[in-house]
Design brief:
4 strands, Lrp/AsnC family transcriptional regulator, alpha+beta, transcription, Alpha-Beta Plaits, DNA-binding
């Protein structure tokens, strides 16, 4: 992989802020021609630095106002238990993130739902049925203080 230089970093910062920017506008913003920007973006994509592009949706317009963090402790650490849990949790669309943790919990889930009632239904239908779960603790977010997808580059 080619190391990232200052121009690559400026391109990445700009693309994170404005993903639909044209190569001409991006070139103006970082001091390159549109074709030079296009070549650099193609290289960053080929190297996997840029994984893809997505639209960032406003959760409130989609009735997903409530964020719940769920700490899961499994009954054991055998590979079969971890694999079964991870495969099952990957099939729950309301789970935006699932992290294998070091610390008091084995996994931390980030779940988005309409409200507490919707979370209770999700808990009954899906979370309570996840394989290998010994303990589960849920914490409701009161307010998003910082919410970004931009990585520091």
């Amino acid at each position: 992989m080619t190391p990232l230089d200052d121009i690559d970093r400026r391109i990445l910062r700009e693309l994170q802020r404005t993903g639909r920017i044209s190569n001409a506008e991006l070139g103006d913003a970082v001091g390159l021609s549109a074709s030079a920007c296009h070549r650099r973006i193609a290289r960053l994509e080929a190297q996997g630095v840029i994984r893809g592009y997505a639209a960032l949706l406003d959760r409130t317009h989609l009735s997903r106002r409530t964020t719940v963090f769920v700490e899961i402790t499994l009954s054991g650490q055998a590979v079969e238990i971890l694999d079964a849990f991870e495969a099952a949790v990957a099939r729950i669309p309301d789970v935006l993130e699932c992290h294998l943790m070091a610390g008091t919990a084995d996994y931390l889930l980030k779940v988005v739902v309409e409200d507490a009632e919707a979370f209770a239904a999700l808990h009954r239908r899906h979370l309570a049925r996840l394989p290998g779960v010994a303990q589960m603790q849920s914490s409701f977010s009161l307010r998003r203080v910082r919410d970004t997808t931009e990585l520091p580059v």
